């Protein structure tokens, strides 16, 4: 009897071992794909939808590569709603000697996914975007806020993406506060009303996500293709190869955190999690309670994403 049980255990174990080894083989297959930027300029195909007045999306990226790592919803808005997506590269990294290289990689990555690029203080980006600079160097911080405010005035976005306030990395946290401060200055100066500010996450989970956006294999492949253009970075740490695993785990997490504790997992393979909030004047306004899950085959429309969270009376 014990031999039969042992044989059955071993057979079962071998099946799971093949599954695990298959995951490793998939990563190894990714290692064989050349990294960018290369001699060929990869340019994304135009969106399926063209509108006379396209939706304007601004992504405040703490570092080059963040535009792809958290870019599932901006990319879907471009592909499915014809949005014009502009990546605002808040910094080009802290290493002065590598900034020219990182800018080349960023421009190549954005061509791959079809995003526009703007760099404050072109071609260098900002320095010292962190809580210490905001707290202890108010004049320097105010200058950054003013420059980013001018970018918002030029772009006049319909929606802005930025990291949440607890995204661990000091530049991610600093970018959150810089985006909030600059949006506040822009809205006060322009007199515009409520503006959606969608919080992203990468280094630390948002404590209260309210939007899960399903991602098809085709969209995930575009995000990986863009991330791989940051060749100098992913040679150091091949995080592009682990990105599908992160997006896969988001389905597990979002299905219950957003869909309800104890609920079933959604069947699509990948997802990105966000928190929809709003800016009104200089204040970030909390959303109406609730959650929304959008599958990869459901048509993306900005108003349908933000209306469930619009605060009462605003």
Mean pLDDT: 96
Number of helices: 11
Q: How many angstroms separate the termini?
A: 70 Å
CATH class: Alpha Beta
The CATH topology is what?
A: Rossmann fold
CATH superfamily: LmbE-like
Number of domains: 1
Q: What ranges have pLDDT less than 50 throughout 5 or more consecutive residues?
A: none
Radius of gyration: 21 Å
The secondary structure category is alpha/beta
Largest sheet: 9 strands, mixed
Got a strand count? Answer: 9
Fraction in beta strands: 15-25%
What would CATH call the architecture?
A: 3-Layer(aba) Sandwich
What is the H/E order?
Answer: HEHHEHEHHEHEEHHHEEEH
Helix content: 40-55%
Bulk shape: globular
Overview of this structure, please?
The chain has helices at 2-31, 66-69, 72-81, 99-113, 131-136, 138-155, 170-190, 217-227, 231-236, 239-257, 302-306, and strands at 56-61, 84-89, 116-118, 159-163, 195-200, 211-215, 270-280, 283-285, 292-294. It has eleven helices and nine strands. Helix 4 (99-113) runs antiparallel to helix 8 and helix 6 (138-155) packs across helix 7. Strands 1, 2, 3, 4, 5, 6, 7, 8 and 9 form a nine-stranded mixed β-sheet that branches. It is globular, with a radius of gyration of 21 Å. With 314 residues, the protein is of the alpha/beta class.
Helix and strand arrangement:
Blueprint: H1 2-31, E1 56-61, H2 66-69, H3 72-81, E2 84-89, H4 99-113, E3 116-118, H5 131-136, H6 138-155, E4 159-163, H7 170-190, E5 195-200, E6 211-215, H8 217-227, H9 231-236, H10 239-257, E7 270-280, E8 283-285, E9 292-294, H11 302-306
Parallel strand pairs: 1-2, 1-4, 2-3, 4-5, 6-9
Antiparallel strand pairs: 5-7, 6-7, 7-8
